[in-house]
Amino acid sequence: MLQEVDNVKITILVDNMTDMLLPSSPLVERPPMISNQKFNKPPIAEHGFSALLQISYVYKNEKLINKFLFDTGVSENGVIYNSDIFAINFRDIETIVLSHGHFDHFSGLVSVLKRINKPTKIIMHPDALLKRWIVFPNGNKAKMDTLNEETIRDVNGIIVKESGLNYLPYEKKIMNNNAEDYEE
Could you give the domains of the chain? Predict the structure, then answer.
């Protein structure tokens, strides 16, 4: 059974576009364009994706809030730059979920883990670690960047390989933050 949640807040950190002129609405809060009579730095847009998910729910009569980072964008520091603009504290992130093993969804992972600076679970399908090539119609090939397990572990990443359907939060496991809870 899925855990019932009270509230879900999604903050898009990296996407293909940004538009500083779009106004906020009751459902969407956008960063202010101007502060102290000066233009604020705009967030950057780039190919790839990253979003912060904040989930609020009641578990055993206690209101809990969990924060998960879904993907980390295409560049090493794009997600970091935008998180600074949005005043996101990465130390609150409990788990990082990688949707798949393409570089436009994981290239900021090491920078994010360095910013978090504590042991952090990274949930990914085992195939996310495969080596990949782009093969063009004319036969030219280019090797794609790949995830490196040793590098991830060196910056406090706890790799959790999941191939089946799953859901978040992990109930008691999410609160313990122990790598042993995830070993099969």
Answer: 7-182 (3.60.15.10)
